[in-house]
């Protein structure tokens, strides 16, 4: 056993030694292997390092190169980007424009479609009409011939009617003027104005009567002033007057105009017509003659224009002109001229005996192509007179105003011509010198007024006795004795129709003047003036 143990120990030692040798061997080979690996790795690491360094160099070179190119690229890209942005906004703009024009086109299309539909429907109806007309062409042609014939007949009838109208117009003119002549070529109307609101209570009304007011309206009675007889009896006599017409205080300007409208017609028919207002200051002359809108002048003008148009359908054309003058202190003044020239500029009266025509030389003669023009003219005359009034107080009451409207007519169908004048005269106040108690300049004015009014009376009286002079000789007519009568020479007398308005105040205080005026008017009314003749009614 021991030996075995020893053997075993030896074996074990041997094995141990063997194992230690193996281990050492293995350790050595391990160490070699590790060293080999280390060396290999070291080598490989060196290689790798070298490679890395090389690469790194290459990269840094590359990076440097790349860095430079990148900046350039960036700048280029920025430029490209802004170019692109600009292009984009341009494109957006263009797109908007396109969109808008598209919208327009779309709405135009809708409109065109509507129009096309309307045209199509019109075309359809035209086609239907053509079909209808074609189908009825024969009936249509008959109807057309019939219509043509009827139209020819109507035209013939119209021509006959026009001819008849023309003849009737000539007859009307003749009859109208015959009636005027039968009424007398000088007529007198009396107008009593109403009492005015500003009359005081102490102003009592005169006792005026209108006995036939419900009938013909031609009479007026006035209770005269009271007189005391030797026995002490107080009496007052009633004065009765009769004229062609008496208008009481309630009559309007329109009622008065109705009576004189026919005289205005005569002026259009080629007669010289003279309408004048006579009476004391404040008796209503201007109210009657020139009240704006409804006085005799504005109404006469309106009637003339109406008639002018009516007569145009009968072939008549009229040319109207106007002069407006005043006679103040026996001096003629142009109321249509410069107010500064009043009483300074010398005006001359010219008579054309062949045409019985009077013109005032150096005074404006205005063509009157519309009623408005006449109203403008009247307004400027009133203005001029009021300018003068500041110099010599109440000028309009102290002068005679004469509006001369000339009417020249020609008938293009018959060749007839006529020339008439309408004189509208507002006389100065007629109060007597002894009653007015004035002196100085006013006395001179009053004397001049009275002289011209008395000349007017003389002229009318002389006209009344014309033809009844000794040996049938024409009586002398003293036209030249005053500016007023000389101016109105062809409008007072044989060739003219005259209407005098005697204006009367209704107040007791004015009774004396009222009676004087009415007596003067009675003389005029009792005058018979010969037959009026139309002016130069000739055929070409
Ligand atoms: N028929 C009438 N109806 C109402 N008022 C009237 C009438 N007539 C005259 N008048 C008034 O009487 C006053 C005097 O009238 P108007 O100025 O016409 O008198 P006249 O005679 O022209 O005076 P003058 O000689 O001073 O110019 C005015 O206030 C006017 O309005």
From TrEMBL:
InterPro entries: Kinesin-like_fam, Kinesin_motor_CS, Kinesin_motor_dom, Kinesin_motor_dom_sf, P-loop_NTPase. The keyword DNA-binding does not apply. This is Kinesin-like protein. It comes from Eremomyces bilateralis CBS 781.70. Gene3D superfamilies: Kinesin motor domain. Keywords: ATP-binding, Coiled coil, Cytoplasm, Cytoskeleton, Microtubule, Motor protein, Nucleotide-binding. GO terms for cellular component: microtubule. It is found in: Cytoplasm, Cytoskeleton. The keyword Acyltransferase does not apply. Residues 185-527 form the Kinesin motor domain. ATP binds at residues 279-286. Pfam families: Kinesin. It comes from the Eukaryota. Residues 74-185 form a coiled coil. GO terms for molecular function: ATP binding; microtubule binding; minus-end-directed microtubule motor activity. Residues 1-32, 45-74 are annotated as: Disordered. One of its GO terms (biological process) is microtubule-based movement. Belongs to the TRAFAC class myosin-kinesin ATPase superfamily. Kinesin family. KIN-14 subfamily.
């Amino acid at each position: 056993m021991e030996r075995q143990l020893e053997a075993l120990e030896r074996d074990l030692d041997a094995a141990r030694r063997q194992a230690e040798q193996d281990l050492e061997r293995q350790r050595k080979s391990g160490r070699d292997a590790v060293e080999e690996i280390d060396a290999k790795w070291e080598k490989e690491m060196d290689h790798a390092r070298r490679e890395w360094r090389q690469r790194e160099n290459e990269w840094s070179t590359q990076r440097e190169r790349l860095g430079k190119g990148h900046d350039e690229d960036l700048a280029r890209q920025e430029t490209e980007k802004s170019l692109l942005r600009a292009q984009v906004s341009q494109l957006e703009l263009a797109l908007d424009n396109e969109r808008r024009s598209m919208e327009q086109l779309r709405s135009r299309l809708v409109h065109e479609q509507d129009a096309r539909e309307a045209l199509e429907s019109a075309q359809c109806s035209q086609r239907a009409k053509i079909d209808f007309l074609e189908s009825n062409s024969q009936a249509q042609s008959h109807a057309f011939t019939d219509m043509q014939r009827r139209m020819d007949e109507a035209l013939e009838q119209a021509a006959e009617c026009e001819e008849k109208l023309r003849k009737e117009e000539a007859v009307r003119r003749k009859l109208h003027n015959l009636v005027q002549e039968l009424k007398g070529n000088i007529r007198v109307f009396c107008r009593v104005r109403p009492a005015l609101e500003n009359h005081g209570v102490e102003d009592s009304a005169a006792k005026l009567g209108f006995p036939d007011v419900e009938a013909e309206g031609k009479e007026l009675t006035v209770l005269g002033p009271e007189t005391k007889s030797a026995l002490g009896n107080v009496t007052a006599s009633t004065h009765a007057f009769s004229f062609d017409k008496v208008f009481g205080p309630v009559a309007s300007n329109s009622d008065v105009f109705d009576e004189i409208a026919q005289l205005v017609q005569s002026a259009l028919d080629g007669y010289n017509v003279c309408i004048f207002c006579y009476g004391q200051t404040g008796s209503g002359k201007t109210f009657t003659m020139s009240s704006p809108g409804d006085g005799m002048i504005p109404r006469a003008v309106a009637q003339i224009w109406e008639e002018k148009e009516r007569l145009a359908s009968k072939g008549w054309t009229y040319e109207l002109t106007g002069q407006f003058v005043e006679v103040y202190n026996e001096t003629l003044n142009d109321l249509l001229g410069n107010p500064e020239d009043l009483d300074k500029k010398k005006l001359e009266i010219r008579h054309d005996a062949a045409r019985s025509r009077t013109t005032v030389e150096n005074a404006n003669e205005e063509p009157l192509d519309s009623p408005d023009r006449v109203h403008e003219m009247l307004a400027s005359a009133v203005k001029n007179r009021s300018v003068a009034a500041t110099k010599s107080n109440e000028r309009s009451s102290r002068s005679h105003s004469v509006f001369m409207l000339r009417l020249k007519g020609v008938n293009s169908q018959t060749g007839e011509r006529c020339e008439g004048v309408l004189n509208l005269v507002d006389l100065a106040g007629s109060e007597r010198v002894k009653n007015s108690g004035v002196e100085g300049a006013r006395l001179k004015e009053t004397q001049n007024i009275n002289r011209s009014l008395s000349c007017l009376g003389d002229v009318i009286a002389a006209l009344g006795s014309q033809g009844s002079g000794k040996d049938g000789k024409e009586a002398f007519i003293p036209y030249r004795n005053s500016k007023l009568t000389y101016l109105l020479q062809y409008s007072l007398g044989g060739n003219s129709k005259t209407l005098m308005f005697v204006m009367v105040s209704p107040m007791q205080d004015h009774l004396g003047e009222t009676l004087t005026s009415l007596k003067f008017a009675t003389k005029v009314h009792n005058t018979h003036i010969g037959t009026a003749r139309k002016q130069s009614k000739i055929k070409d």
